Amino acid sequence: MDGVDAREPSFRDSVDIMFNRAAGMLDLPSGMAEKIRVANSTYIVRFGVKLRGEIKTFTGYRSVHSEHMEPVKGGIRFADNVNQDEVEALAALMTYKCALVEVPYGGSKGGLCINPNDWEVDELERITRRFAYELIKRDLINPAQNVPAPDMGTGEREMAWIADAYKRIKTDDINARACVTGKPRNVGGIAGRTEATGRGVQYGLREFFRHPKDIAAAGLSGSLSGKRVIVQGLGNVGYHAAKFLSEEDDCLVTAIAERDGAVINEAGINVEQLKEYMNEHGGVKGFPGCEYVENGPSVLESECDILIPAAMEAAIHLGNADRIKAPLIMEAANGPVTAGADEILRGKGCVIIPDMYANAGGVTVSYFEWVKNLSHIRFGRMQRRQEEAWHEMLIGGIEEVTGTPFPSDKKYMEGADELSLVRSGLDDTMRSAYQQMSKVWNARKDEGIDLRTAAYLISIQKVADSYATLGL
Ligand code: GLU
Fold first, then answer.
1. Which of 147, 181, 274, 389 sits at 20 to 30 Å (Cα–Cα) from 362?
2. What are 248-298's pLDDT values in tens digits?
3. CATH code linked to domain 41-187
4. Which atom of ligand 1 is nearest to the CA of 334?
5. Cα–Cα distance, 1 to 33 (Å, whole number)
6. Amino acid 4: pLDDT
7. What are the domain boundaries of the chain?
8. Active site residues
9. What's the whole-model pTM score?
10. Residue 51: strand pairing partners
């Protein structure tokens, strides 16, 4: 975290402050808010792996925030600054996120203190499998109880190792593949999972721009097209969000901040080319056609229409919040705005589309993957050709009645394949969750409610209702 102020609460406390603001506005049974807020359990596992001629000890976490629905769900992060406070904050956000977008899970999160770049691939595989074993034997990885997914520093490759580790231990579990999501396609993954969080950011922004009152509240006008966007972090989430917004929605990505600095181009950055350049050179410095600044976070303070922090938590903090000029912030990362910064930004009239909504695309498509694994069949397999035959019949009938041939573009004839079904399900999820938030926000603006508080109000109420039904 850059420029952290001593007055800044911890990530966990920051989430709790935001939770408390909303919980205080709800009429919950006595003690319910406390029950929802606390993390149910956090396991710390320490294990040794013999590497490079010596035993190396690693520390990993899996925190279960809420089991009002099971399995619990949330990614596993590999980073050298992973700690209990962070994992618990992220697990809590998973609970609220799943409730908000109606994905039937409790919240969980895991992490391993490791810098993946310090290790060769085969070493990383041994470490990951050993960590997975520690979690599997405690049922902290289990298709019915706890289903991890990728997060920062992990991806398809690590999920494949985890799935295989589970299958080797639970050889008779026919649902073994559902023990983890975000897997490669050939071991039970689903089309569109890798792009899902970035795609959700795009669908979320599209939905925001379908709400004229909300656009006006941010002091913006018009549509998403032509909006100037600044993105922090060109990892999986930031890359896909920036790519889709620039290539499909005509947004201008005017600055991208990365670890080694930021690149700026008011005419718009070619995201795909920058990503290729980064893969080759390890950073953004020297990318042709762009101005480079070493102080990456400084571009968060530049003029733009939409700011998308898609890197770490606490990117916007007490030290820079009052210099942020963006009228609209889309929190693609988890917890990118601290509680103190949130207050400052709200005071300035900045509209923040909160993390629990903005980055919910990942867990939404994880849900589809889990359902696919449990049903043991790819989406669309049964109905695709039947749909095509039906479309063909319908078009044939129309042509016969009208005596006019249909346009030759045959796209409308196609039955839905897995990718289009996943995107349709994700789009629907993002639209309806936004509509719920916007409704609460607009109805209760006079009480000082913003979009984040609206999101908390909705999700806390849903979790409370689940607990009440369970007899709590
Ligand atoms: N790590 C992602 C998140 O923070 C995805 C979690 C999941 O798919 O379970 O939402």
1. 274
2. 999 999 999 999 999 999 999 999 999 999 999 999 999 999 999 999 999
3. 3.40.50.10860
4. 4
5. 30
6. 58
7. 41-187, 190-380+416-472
8. 109
9. 0.96
10. 54
